[in-house]
User: Fold this.
Amino acid sequence: MIIRNIFSRRYSRKIFVWVVCVVLTVGMLSGCEKKAPESNEIKIGVCCYDQYDTFLSQLIKCFEKCVEDGVNVEYVYASQSQITQNEQVEKLIAKGVDVLCVNLVDRTAPNTIIELAKKADVPIIFFNRELVEEDITQWPKLYYIGSDAFESGRMQGELAANMIRRESSKADKNGDGRIQYVVLEGEAGHQDAIVRTEYSVNTLIDEGVEVDKVGYAIANWNRAQAQTKMAQLIERNGDGIELVLANNDDMALGAVDAYNSAKISADERPLIFGIDGTDVGLEAVVNKTIMGTIYNDKEGQARAMYDLAMALAKGESVSSLNLEDGRYIRTHYEKVDAANVLQYIHK
Assistant:
């Protein structure tokens, strides 16, 4: 019995030692195993100043069409609050985005976003709302994609001048040899709005059109606000408005809405021009409720933004993208009126 117990204890110890060795060995082997490779999915964060801007919404749809398998894009909208946008950027960086595409709420206040991205080493592509040159040079990994506001203003002025020359009796309703105009401007202090207004009017004058400014209103790129402001201008000026220059199509259509509400016939209305070539703007040109618009290449901007984002996310060279000064990609505008609108409406 004693011998059997001793043998049993020795056997148990051997079993125990063997189990311990097996456990240690498995643990060591598992520690030496390679970890499962992390996902190669590319993450892009797209931050927009507002969800109700017609042109911006269509640009984002074009961007979505570019997105390939293996690319995850998160879209956020700041509802016109820079504080909200700053917080959204911080959260996107915490989620591990590889690159940010930012449509600034306030083009003069990008510093918080830049510092957040710089600290995390996340490149930023600003788009559509251009920050000032001093800010974009703060860090080498800052870029801008958009179009040239000077060009859009100049083209709108040319389009209006050509229409006035062709339809002089329709344009100059009171026959005084001058065109009485109003401006619907996009946003107080916004560079694109200021430039579009200035160059449109100055181009009209350079083209030999004599003009009188009879009204001006800021409508924040918004159709409903433009309708309200235009209704006030109509009440103040009656039929003394012969031309409406709107900084974008939504505001041009807001002017149309105001004339519809006032029950003023098409023959008695001024010539109305927009900018951006949105779907609704192009339809209005087809229907001749506005006389023309300036097509803003949303497809080209979306493709350029996606290609640049992918190159930055992969750490590839961006030299093939032909950036101006190593930072800018600018697309061109095109004039649209009844003669060529159909080639844009299905673009």
